[in-house]
């Protein structure tokens, strides 16, 4: 059927050429056009049957395209379509591996990484990843995992990440550090603005809270340089205002639990914080006197000994440092940095 249609179409196309070559009369031209039209339809029908099934539909569209090409290109259209149908469409595609080019899919730096509810790495592992990981996405995930850590512990990781060559890692570290700093700073500014309107009986608690927040900025290493010195001076000034006032009458335990001005801090806690601020300012003599006041106010000796050891160490009195650390007996600090320092000094 297909071969017969193609043969008949080619024969009609030949007759059209013969009729066109017989003369220049209108009858010969009309006969040639009719024979060429019949040839185009016959060949279109035969070529359509040669097409694979997926190219035959829609029938009218496929047949119309073939007929139009054959009618507009006498002889050449028939031979060209015959070659393309028999040679191109019927031959399997060349699957030569040499013509394939493998392209590695690039990472998209703006795609949000998966956020896990539990950090998959320890603190030490995060530091190693930020320092040595070659993939930016892995360093980005390590910086994001620091949201589960205290700012003081995360600060070394943020400091390294803020020098990362990749913008996304560097900007994320800046954002996390600045977010913590701005939160504490805004609390301090809000309390300082409301302090003049606070009744006198509650001003003590406001001064304690402002001093604690200023110290938090310093302790968490969120303030550096001149800004750190400023917050230390601010904390010291507010605590001195607290310590200049007479000690409040001790409230019942239920009242403290319910919440009192300053979060239920005792006078001994204020003296201990004041000693830490003085020690951080390298005022060792005043810090030792503040620790004595804290001891008199009822602070446990175990809370005072580490700071006495720190003062002795800064004064290069190493024998006194060892005695203070040897007297420590804090069961909850076995795996902490203080326990490691204590073991080194007492077993050296």
Describe this structure in words.
This protein has 348 residues and is mainly alpha-helical. The protein has 16 helices and no strands. The protein has helices at residues 2-22, 26-50, 59-72, 76-89, 123-132, 136-145, 151-161, 167-194, 200-219, 225-244, 253-258, 267-280, 284-296, 301-314, 318-326, 337-347. Helix 3 (59-72) crosses helix 4 (76-89) and helix 8 runs antiparallel to helix 9 (200-219). It starts with a helix and ends with a helix. Residues 250-263 have low confidence and may be disordered.
Q: Strand percentage, roughly?
A: under 5%
- In DSSP terms (H or I, runs of 4 or more residues), the helix count works out at 16
Question: From the helix content, strand content and strand pairing, which structural class follows?
Answer: mainly alpha
Q: Helical percent range?
A: 55-70%
Per DSSP E runs of 2 or more residues, the count of β-strands stands at: 0
Write down the Rg: 44 Å
Shape: rod-shaped
Biggest sheet: strands, sense, closure? none
How far apart the termini lie comes to: 104 Å
Mean pLDDT across the residues is 76
Order of helices and strands: HHHHHHHHHHHHHHHH
Task: Note poorly predicted spans.
Answer: 250-263
């Amino acid at each position: 059927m297909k071969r017969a249609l193609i043969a008949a179409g080619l024969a009609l196309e030949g007759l059209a050429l013969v009729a066109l070559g017989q003369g220049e009369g209108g009858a010969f031209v009309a006969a040639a056009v009719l024979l060429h039209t019949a040839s185009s339809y016959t060949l279109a029908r035969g070529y359509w049957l040669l097409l694979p099934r997926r190219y035959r539909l829609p029938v009218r569209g496929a047949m119309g395209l073939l007929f139009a090409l054959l009618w507009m290109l006498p002889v050449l259209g028939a031979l060209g379509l015959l070659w393309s149908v028999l040679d191109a469409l019927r031959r399997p595609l060349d699957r030569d591996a040499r013509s394939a080019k493998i392209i590695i899919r690039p990472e998209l730096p703006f795609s949000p990484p998966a956020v896990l509810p539990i950090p998959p790495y320890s603190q030490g592992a995060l530091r190693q990843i930020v320092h040595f990981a070659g993939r930016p996405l892995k360093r980005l995930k390590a910086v994001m995992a620091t949201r589960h850590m205290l700012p003081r512990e995360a600060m070394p990781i943020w400091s390294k990440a803020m020098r990362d060559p990749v913008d996304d890692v560097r900007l994320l570290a800046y954002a996390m550090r600045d977010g913590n700093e701005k939160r504490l700073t805004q609390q301090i500014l809000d309390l300082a603005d409301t302090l003049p309107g606070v009744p006198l009986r509650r001003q003590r608690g406001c001064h304690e809270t402002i001093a604690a927040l200023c110290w938090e900025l310093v302790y968490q290493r969120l303030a550096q340089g001149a800004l750190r010195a400023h917050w230390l001076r601010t904390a010291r000034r507010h605590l001195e205002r607290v310590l200049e006032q007479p000690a409040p009458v001790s409230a019942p335990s239920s009242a403290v639990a319910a919440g009192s001005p300053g979060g239920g801090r005792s006078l001994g806690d204020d003296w201990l914080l004041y000693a830490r601020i003085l020690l951080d300012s390298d005022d060792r003599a005043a810090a030792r006197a503040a620790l004595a006041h804290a001891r008199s106010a009822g602070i446990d000796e175990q809370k005072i000994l580490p700071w006495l050891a720190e003062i002795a160490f800064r004064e290069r009195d190493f024998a006194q440092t060892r005695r203070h650390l040897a007297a420590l007996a804090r069961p909850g600090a076995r795996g902490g940095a203080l326990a490691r320092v204590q073991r080194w000094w007492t077993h050296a």
